[in-house]
Write a structure and sequence with these properties.
The chain is an alpha+beta fold and about 800 residues long. It is built from 32 helices and 23 strands.
Length: about 800
């Protein structure tokens, strides 16, 4: 009976045009709504292929006439063997390794650029890890996830002519971060190789731990980490729990599957999950990867990592792990609060790449805060190209960048609003398709379907809508605008993971999967070894990570690669322990030293790093003036000036001891083993003399601690003593004023104190100006009297002569 029903459906398909695949996959969601341009284009291809109405085969391939699961999921229809389309059955059509035959048939620009994108190459992450293991390639960013190189023709870079010219200039300024070609990093070492050179353990560390997230693999299958591969990494929704919740009864109900068989993309792409409709790519999709390292995805959502397990649910269970971590809920980024998704700021080039290699985040990201917000003195369109993206210590100058009247044709496949008065331009000269100028305002057409009216800072100033504090900070104190990033003040917290303690253990035959090796074992179906059986790619060693402590408040300051003052957080403060095959440490709590870099000579600089960052925790109200100008930590001197911690280079033993600290028991253990190369707290990266104690950014030339000149301008610690050293009885005048205030019972609160200081400033200034004028007039008068004034002639004296 089932066979008869199948042949009836099959005959109907041939006669009237239908989707034969849904004989089995009945109830599955359309990948796009039937009225969309994308679905119409897919169905047009299906008809050309001789399978009218079957949209499945255009992406998945396969044999739609075979009822057997095995044979239906093999091969492809005859048409696609000689035309664009799948060359075999593709269970994951978005896979990096075959998507030129699927997504790339309609979106060749984005798919063509993906292989050199930072999300694919992971160059910055790889260079950072190798730096902390002794700078195996120095400042170069030539090691990546596979072998590739830039196109021969520079005009193949995606973007406007202005953008192409700008990027060519950056590549000559920072060649170490814009390599021409890239090679795959070395294989994971054998145990014997590690015994000869323990620093080779970095390749075990990278392959087992750090390289799960590149888009050529499907990543780790843990709560919060479920995602697709290639284009599907972002464009197919996966829930944190990893369950399919659609209508197809044939799709597995085990963890590790898509939430629904629908594409998520731009504003015009509507996705329906149960009774909820949405558009755009949810932030949690991005956080699938952006939850470690700089942690910008989870930080944007207000999630701050914690070691503790609170709070408990109704069954008394601890907070579940998400991305293998637990969190505190901090203040979310204001853009997140407004409903903005990552794609609302970040451009297609930021995400897909422009086709050329960029070794770290600053190389890949083309946007700046001022692109939309401008400054108090200039609208965004009045700012020059390169503003706040200078890679120089002097502010960008030149004619205003203006606006764009159109966007690239391939971008129009997504949602592009009407230009109004023009599309806003990024600092590098590409249009922001979601941001359009309307008079002196900007309309943000968000991927969620919401429109936001944005008033640039200059307009807010003209309308007197800025607070006094804001005007002083952004308009009066000009270096805050020309020498600093906006987020230096407006990112009010940042995750700070001090001391990244990494153990790579090769004892007892320990093994773990090599994620990179598994991703490279791809087949004609676009599936990787990791998608088939990750256990087949075990390599020696087992990686575990922990840290010394976590903080979030008031990150320290340094100079970033763009030459601007920026927040810094611990990057890879990697303190390394390598355990050999016999269970003995080959390296124990070891910090590598790199000679002749970052202010050090042959003795070497500690290869632990403080990394400049855009924390993605922006608030309307900035951090306080005191948090920078009266802070040891902000200067780079460490939390509490680095004076609160004992010397970590000495082992701590805690047990019964005499008053002169002699240990009494014979049987004891080391409570805190020493870190030989660390003489100070992890939060201290310069000392009081300005000597650098660890590296501060190692991707770009200008990354460094604050210079002596910058620290002197910032440092206002101890200014209270300037007044209070003479209060209450420093001299007769001060004593009298103090006595009068006590008699009058004046309460000196914060407001009164501020008013007194303001009066003292103005009185002192006027006294000095008037005093200066008086002294100048007195000097002029003296010069006149003694040198210029002529003796009067007495007529009587003339007569005597």
């Amino acid at each position: 009976m089932n066979k008869i029903a199948f042949f009836i459906i099959l005959l109907s398909s041939l006669l009237f045009g239908a989707n034969e695949c849904i004989v089995c996959h009945k109830g599955i969601e359309d990948i796009r709504d039937r009225d969309s341009g994308m679905m119409k284009a897919i169905l047009e291809v299906a008809e050309k292929a001789g399978h009218k109405g079957n949209d499945c085969i255009v992406c998945h391939g396969g044999n739609p006439y075979n009822k057997s699961v095995e044979y239906a999921h093999k091969g492809t229809v005859k048409y696609f063997k000689t035309n664009k389309g799948p060359k075999d059955y593709y269970p994951a059509p978005g896979s990096t390794w075959i998507n030129k035959n699927t997504c790339g048939t309609c979106h060749p620009n984005q798919v063509g650029a993906q292989m050199n994108s930072l999300m694919m190459t992971e160059q910055g992450k790889i260079q950072g890890a190798m730096w902390s293991f002794g700078a195996k390639e120095g400042y170069q960013h030539t090691a990546g996830t596979y072998d590739t190189k830039n196109p021969d023709d520079p005009n193949k870079r995606l973007g406007t002519d202005v953008y192409k010219k700008y990027m060519a200039k950056l590549a000559t300024m920072e060649p170490q971060a814009f390599p021409q070609e890239m090679h795959e990093l070395p294989d994971a070492p054998t145990v014997e190789e590690v015994h000869k050179d323990p620093s080779l353990a970095v390749f075990t560390y990278l392959r087992q731990e750090c390289l799960r997230c590149h888009t050529g693999s499907k990543g780790r299958q843990e709560r919060g980490d479920y995602r697709g591969i290639g284009c599907s990494s972002c464009h197919i929704p996966y829930s944190n729990e990893g369950y399919y919740e659609g209508g197809d009864k044939k799709t597995s109900k085990k963890q590790g599957h898509l939430l629904t068989h629908q594409i998520q993309s731009s504003r015009k792409v509507k996705v329906k999950v149960h009774d909820v409709n949405y558009s755009g790519i949810p932030v949690e999709t991005c956080s699938t990867c952006h939850n470690r390292g700089k942690r910008i995805g989870v930080s944007y959502q207000g999630l701050m990592e914690t070691e503790y397990q609170s709070t408990f649910d109704s069954g008394g269970n601890a907070q579940p792990e998400l991305h293998t971590k637990r969190y505190l809920h901090m203040k979310e980024d204001i853009h997140y609060q407004k409903g903005m998704l990552c794609q609302d700021c970040h451009t297609s080039n930021d995400l897909h790449g422009d086709g050329f290699l960029g070794g770290a985040n600053l190389a890949a990201v083309e946007i700046e805060c001022q692109d939309c917000h401008g400054t108090t003195k200039k609208y965004p369109w009045e700012l020059p190209i390169g503003y706040s993206d200078e890679f120089n210590t002097t502010v960008a100058t030149g004619k205003g960048r203006g606006v764009a009247s159109s966007v690239a044709e391939y971008l129009k496949q997504g949602y592009v609003p009407e230009p109004e008065d023009g599309y806003i331009l990024t600092a590098r000269g590409n249009p922001l398709p979601k941001a359009v100028k309307k008079g002196n305002k900007i309309i943000m057409h968000l991927a969620s379907g919401k429109d936001i009216e944005l008033k640039p800072l200059k307009l807010l100033k003209e309308k007197k809508a800025l607070s006094k504090k804001a005007l002083i900070a952004m308009d009066v104190i000009e270096p805050h605008t020309t020498k600093m990033e906006c987020y230096t003040c407006h990112a009010t917290w940042a995750p700070q993971c001090y001391g990244c303690h990494v153990k790579i253990d090769y004892s007892g035959g320990k093994q773990n999967p090599d994620f990179l090796k598994a991703s490279h074992d791809k087949d004609i179906h676009g599936t990787t070894g990791g998608m088939r059986d990750l256990k087949k790619y075990l390599v020696p060693g087992q990686v575990t990570e922990t840290r010394s402590y976590l903080r979030w408040e008031d990150p320290a300051l340094a100079q970033n690669g763009e030459g601007r003052v920026s927040p810094v957080v611990p990057g890879c403060q990697t303190t390394i322990t390598v355990i050999g095959k016999e269970g003995k440490a080959l390296l124990q709590n070891h910090i590598f030293k790199i000679p002749n870099v970052e202010g050090a000579g042959e003795e070497g600089q500690n290869a632990i790093d403080m990394a400049p960052i855009q924390p993605h925790t922006i608030q309307k109200e900035s951090r306080s003036c005191e948090s920078c100008h009266a802070s040891d930590k902000a200067l780079g001197l460490g939390i509490g000036g680095g004076k609160l911690n004992a010397d970590p280079s000495k082992t701590t033993i805690i047990d019964l001891m005499s008053a002169d600290r002699k240990i009494l028991p014979k049987k004891t253990d080391k409570q805190i083993p020493a870190i030989a190369n660390l003489k100070h707290d992890y939060s201290k990266f310069i000392d009081e003399n300005g000597t650098q104690l660890m590296t501060v950014g190692h991707h770009f030339k200008l990354s460094q601690p604050l210079s002596k000149e910058q620290r002197e301008k910032l440092d206002r610690r101890g200014v209270c003593i300037s007044c209070h050293q003479d209060i209450p009885k420093g001299n007769l005048a001060v004593s009298a004023i103090t006595h009068i205030s006590e008699m009058a019972e004046i309460d000196i609160d914060r407001k009164t104190h501020s008013n007194i200081l303001n009066k003292l400033l103005n009185i002192g200034a006027w006294i000095q100006v008037i005093g200066g004028l008086f002294v100048s007039l007195l000097i002029m008068y003296a010069i006149y009297v003694f040198f210029l004034k002529k003796e009067p002639k007495n007529p009587r004296n003339e007569g005597w002569k």
